[in-house]
Amino acid sequence: MFPAWLVIAVVGVAIASASSLLSSRDIKWFKRQRRPDWLTFEFAIPFVWTVVFICGGWSAYIVWRQTQSWWLMAGYVLLELLIVSYTPVMCKLQSLRVGTAIGAAGFVFGLLLAWPVAQVDTAAFLLLLPYLLWSPVGTLITWQMMQLNPGQ
Description:
The structure is a single chain. By secondary structure, the protein is mostly helical. Helices cover about 80% and strands about 0% of the residues. It has six helices and no strands. The chain has helices at about 5-20, 25-30, 45-65, 70-95, 95-120, 120-150. α1 packs antiparallel against α3, α3 runs antiparallel to α6 (about 120-150) and α4 packs antiparallel against α5.
């Protein structure tokens, strides 16, 4: 039997890898979009997401160790699917509106998942906070990009 932490890590990496299936056309479209002037830290966004995913996986591991709940694990998987669908779906559809909607949906689902996680373990809940704090920022960035790029 494989250790739970390894299974959680492999599933997380597999899901995250699916988001890298972008064509050069998709990437060019996204790079051409105007960004808010205050977005001076775009270089750091991949590092932020790395922290978010590590914390989310660690949270899932804590919850699994305490509950063995497949329902809660399905919640973590669904949240990660929402998170990683943002870039490929938005870029394939070339729609910042869709990106904003996915970002907002992910945040709402993150809140819904955080509630039962908080009932299980405080540390697992706290490990979801990086996502719950960053997600609205990312969604705001996309929403402001939508305002700066009318017709997109």
